[in-house]
Amino acid sequence: MKIFYKTAEIQEHITALKKKGKSIGFTPTMGALHSGHFELIKRASTENDISICSVYVNPSQFNVASDLEKYPRTLEKDAEGLTANGCDILFAPDNKEIYPNGSDYEVDVDLQGLDLEMEGAKRPGHFAGVVQVVKRLIEITDCDRLYMGQKDFQQFTIIRQMIKSLEMNAKLIVCPIVRDEDGLAKSSRNTRLHPDHRKKANILNRVLVQAKEWLSEGRSPIEITYKAMEYLDIPDFRPEYFDIVDGSTLKKISNTDQVDLIVACTAVWAGEVRLIDNMILKGKL
Ligand code: AMP
User: Fold this and answer.
1) Could you count the other beta carbons within 10 Å of the beta carbon of residue 138?
2) Is 102 exposed, middle or buried (0-12, 13-18, 19+ CB in 10 A)?
3) Ligand 1 centroid distance, CA of 255 (Å)
4) pTM of the model
5) How far apart are CA 44 and CA 55, in angstroms?
6) Residue minimizing CA distance to atom 5 of ligand 1
7) Which one from 13, 34, 37, 194 is the annotated catalytic residue?
8) Is 13 a catalytic residue?
9) Contact 264/208 with Cβ under 8 angstroms?
10) Residue with CA nearest ligand 1 atom 11
11) What is the set of domains in the chain, with CATH numbers?
12) Which residue's CA is minimally distant from atom 18 of ligand 1?
């Protein structure tokens, strides 16, 4: 695996690959890689001639300074895992390689309100930062396919809208959520969970499974949300939201009849760590 730290250098390398007609699959990450990330990397390497992964902790998508500071950084171990999972190129830039003119690089794109719901409402500025960095990375890697996880449902929905609206060439491929054996969705932030909280953290998955059952029994989204919030309210845990939304518009629904894709999305504080998870309750991606 080749490792690049400089934008100009990786771009030169990619230009040469493209001249040879190579297809490129790209997976953007913030590192502290786990098997959820590696599923994306493996798929990118199977479906493309070249699999590229970026490891970059993007400051502009953090709205709380301490979260940015405490974000785990494990580049050496990440590089080993990437090699083992068929990655061809690791891009590990620093801030000036991504934002050479400072962070005022704004992306003008109509997100059709997708960025105002759920995470957007709770983490002001977060999606502006995500759109900014993913656009820049797609441009640098000139990828044919972009690999993202269903774990961040709102994120991939927004990136899909960005790609469409800006008429970018990259095709978005969404991969299923990888979970630990007890059901907790894999996340780089899980390493920061207090051991007692880790033991209880699969409550998010258990309540999502329960919500799916409730919906199939004909209970209303409002009732399910109310009950789910109650179930998630255990000692040391604080649920922020449990929304049942139309998977295309991300708007909360009250009636399920006309909606093809129904998704439950939740964010819960487990002590100091904020966990997010989701589950498709009806329909397919
Ligand atoms: P991150 O490093 O958290 O920014 O994540 C990089 C990519 O990996 C995003 O597209 C995530 O949705 C995806 N990802 C993270 N965790 C998982 C998981 N447990 N299962 C599937 N994809 C994941």
Assistant:
1) 21
2) exposed
3) 30
4) 0.97
5) 15
6) 29
7) 37
8) no
9) yes
10) 149
11) 2-175 (3.40.50.620), 188-279 (3.30.1300.10)
12) 36
Distance 241 CA to ligand 1 centre (A): 20
State the distance from the centre of ligand 1 to the C-alpha of 42, rounded, in angstroms.
13
Atom of ligand 1 nearest to the CA of 32: 2
Q: Which of 33, 37, 61, 159 is the pocket-test mutation for ligand 1 (most atoms within 8 Å of CB)?
A: 37
Pairing between strand 171-175 and 50-55? Answer: unpaired
For 34, 50, 85, 148, the CA distances from 80, given in Å and listed in that order, are 12, 17, 9, 21
List the pLDDT tens digit at each of the 285 positions of the chain: 999 999 999 999 999 999 999 999 999 999 999 999 999 999 999 999 999 999 999 999 998 999 999 999 999 999 999 999 999 999 999 999 999 988 667 789 999 999 999 999 999 999 999 999 999 999 999 999 999 999 999 999 999 999 999 999 999 999 999 999 999 999 999 999 999 999 999 999 999 999 999 999 999 999 999 999 999 999 999 999 999 999 999 999 999 999 999 999 999 999 999 999 999 999 999
